[in-house]
Amino acid sequence: MLSTQEAITGGFANPVMDAQKGFKTLMDCMARPGTVHVPDVSLAQPAPLNRMAALAALTLFDSDTPFWLDDAFHTDSIRDWIGFHTGATPAREKGTAHFAILQATDTMADLAEFNTGTQEYPDRSATLILQVEGFAADPAWLLRGPGIDGSLAFEPLGMPRDFLWFWDGNRNRFPCGIDIVFAAPQALAALPRNTRIDIPGSSNEVS
User: Fold this and answer.
1) This prediction's pTM
2) Tens digit of pLDDT per residue, the chain (207 long)?
3) Distance between CA atoms of 14 and 20, rounded to whole angstroms?
């Protein structure tokens, strides 16, 4: 069982300034899909949560946003740390979570089980924070869509093999659909629901 002292350890070193920097970074990520941002913030978090996934949680979660943790992060220390610093509580199931933190692997949770919103309220969909190893130096993905001037090469490392097929279906649900924040150890990027992913010259190219 996590002690009270352990639960309150960490968080932003400067809660007001760091939260503002974190929010601006995340908004920039969403406005410019596939661009990688390195925010200048100081924080401490429980393992195995990385610093940027923790930043996203501290910035986005609050008492009105139930969250879901996949098996990699489903620990008392992470749950209690998030609860203490944000006021957020765990969701009973994936479909009721406003946010989720997942490790990007082939065995991660089925992304299709998260809330994609409705035609009347597309803004009520979930945002997923995917913790990744980093971003590819020679990316295979080519992004197109709002916020992108023509196209942009981008690819997070360690993504599930079926992710592109899931994402094609997610994009076709627009204005419904989930949004994704990619959290590498020191950097953030995002993939809004209306961003298209292609792999030029590949049989896996989606349209």
Assistant:
1) 0.93
2) 444 565 667 899 899 999 999 999 999 999 999 999 999 999 999 999 999 999 999 999 999 999 999 999 999 999 999 999 999 999 999 999 999 999 998 877 789 999 999 999 999 999 999 999 999 999 999 999 999 999 999 999 999 989 999 999 999 999 999 999 999 999 999 999 999 999 987 654 544
3) 10
Would you kindly state where each structural domain of the chain is located, as residue ranges?
4-198
Percentage of the chain surpassing pLDDT 70?
93
Cα 111 to chain center, whole Å? 12
Separation CA 116–CA 193 (nearest Å)? 10
* Residue among 167, 174, 80 at smallest CA distance from 128: 167
**Residue 154 contacts residue 143 (beta carbons within 8 Å):** yes
Which 8-state DSSP code applies to residue 185?
A: S
Classified by CATH at the fold level, domain 4-198 comes out as: Rossmann fold (3.40.50)
3-state secondary structure 9-38: CCEECCHHHHHHHHHHHHHHHHHCCCCCEC
CA torsion angle 106 112 115 118 (round to 10): 150
Residue 46 near residue 71 (C-beta atoms within 8 A): no
- 189 three-state secondary structure: strand
Rounded-to-integer distance, Cα 129 and Cα 200, Å? 26
